Amino acid sequence: MTVKSDPQQLFKEIMGSYPTGVTVLTTLDEHNKPVGLTVNSFASVSIDPLMVLWCIDKKAGSCEVFKKADKFSVNILAGNQQEVCWTFASKSEQDRFSKQPWVLSENNLPLIKDVFASLECRKVQQIDAGDHYILVGEVIDLDKNDQEPMLYFRRKVGSVPQDWE
Ligand SMILES: Cc1cc2nc3c(=O)[nH]c(=O)nc-3n(C[C@H](O)[C@H](O)[C@H](O)COP(=O)(O)O)c2cc1C
């Protein structure tokens, strides 16, 4: 077993090796400007009603916007959208939405195009959890394209392997 001299580092290593999908969470700020960030803490919560959750770092630049927002959209990336993943995770990228096509939905939420699926949500709960907030949403609209989803594993992203069993 690994010597637990630095539990936080070990925790990061463990969680970074836990494979997940990749989403980009989006909403509009108070000036109707789209904001978004790459997130892999997304999870399904409930079927009846349809509910999901995700976690945002209290230090994220968009944290205050998502705290104030009453809605958000979960854009589940397709396997070939690596550039979208890194653009929305980059601190230095100021104009993330100019890099790929997106539309404003009927619910007034930014939706990234060509994703695997999108879930538009009404925020129903916001839970203070350590250095993050857990945001819980009820799904108000959902859509799926004919694409395979992206996988994240050890700081790399890509498509589902062909020899999957
Ligand atoms: C694969 C991946 C998953 C991520 N998951 C999360 C997450 O669940 N929550 C979070 O707050 N940041 C997450 N991040 C980090 C944010 O995307 C990154 O800090 C982003 O620049 C924050 O943008 P902002 O400061 O403009 O809000 C993730 C990054 C990557 C590459």
UniProtKB/TrEMBL annotation:
InterPro entries: Flavin_Rdtase-like_dom, NADH-dep_flavin_reductase, Split_barrel_FMN-bd
Top-rank lineage group of the source organism: Bacteria
Cross-referenced SUPFAM superfamilies: FMN-binding split barrel
Keywords for this protein: Oxidoreductase
Key word Lyase present: no
Segments forming domain Flavin reductase like: 15-159
One Pfam entry name: Flavin_Reduct
Example of a GO MF term: riboflavin reductase (NADPH) activity
Family: Belongs to the non-flavoprotein flavin reductase family.
Protein name: Oxygenase
Organism: Mesobacillus campisalis
